[in-house]
């Protein structure tokens, strides 16, 4: 009799455990089955399967050949004045990614000593606009600032490379060397040239690089402009363009 009670008690215990497990599992199965019917049995993304905010592509620049760089610069230049604002395409940087990669690229230029030292990591994003043209080329224009020092950056929406920099810096922080800034900005874009010419004009330093191909000769233009807005403060602009 005593053994019979023990066996009965054990069976009751096992039954209770099975009921609890069924209560936890069955609703989940029913919910997933219902989701499958609603979404046509599409794959349900679990939390651990979601990608991070920026994909690997959006935190590094995309390297292109010098010919491709010429084509993108020329396409932008030819459509000058006919730009329109739009949302980024799938193969282009999002706004957040553009800001993230802009700081990474500016840090590279700072470490190269291509621009005077600034603490780029402290800069915040004030505004961002994506401008495109009918040639299929788009650029992000980012306005950022820190400690009442504004900066404007223009970078390729696909490659992430910076084409235009405009910002103010304290003269006491570092001195500007036109030759070095121009040469290093060309190096940043991996521009190699057969011929180079430098000339200054009213505070502007210009580098012209000439690249010959079988079909044509193309020239890059790098403009470095600087002027003092006050005793301690200077403004610097660096622009990469294609010769017209």
Question: What topology emerges from the helices and strands here?
Answer:
Blueprint: H1 2-38, H2 66-78, E1 84-85, H3 95-111, E2 124-132, E3 138-146, E4 149-156, E5 162-170, H4 178-188, E6 195-201, E7 204-212, E8 217-228, E9 233-242
Antiparallel strand pairs: 1-2, 2-3, 3-4, 4-5, 5-9, 6-7, 7-8, 8-9
Describe the structure.
It is a single chain. The chain has helices spanning 2-38, 66-78, 95-111, 178-188, and strands at 84-85, 124-132, 138-146, 149-156, 162-170, 195-201, 204-212, 217-228, 233-242. It is an alpha+beta fold. It has one domain (66-242). A nine-stranded antiparallel sheet has the order 1-2-3-4-5-9-8-7-6. β8 and β9 (233-242) form a beta hairpin. It is elongated, with a radius of gyration of 29 Å. Mean pLDDT is 76; it is low at 35-56 and 211-217.
Question: How would you concisely characterize the structure shown here?
Answer:
This protein has helices at residues 2-38, 66-78, 95-111, 178-188; strands at residues 84-85, 124-132, 138-146, 149-156, 162-170, 195-201, 204-212, 217-228, 233-242.
Task: Report the sheet-strand fraction.
Answer: 25-35%
Whole-angstrom Rg: 29 Å
Q: What is the count of distinct domains?
A: 1
- Largest beta-sheet characterization: 9 strands, antiparallel
Biggest sheet strand line-up: 1-2-3-4-5-9-8-7-6
Q: Which structural class best describes the helix and strand composition?
A: alpha+beta
> What is the helical fraction, as a range of percent?
25-40%
| Secondary structure: number of strands | 9
SSE ordering: HHEHEEEEHEEEE
Mean pLDDT: 76
Count of helices? 4
Transmembrane segments: 7-26
Keywords: Membrane, Transmembrane, Transmembrane helix
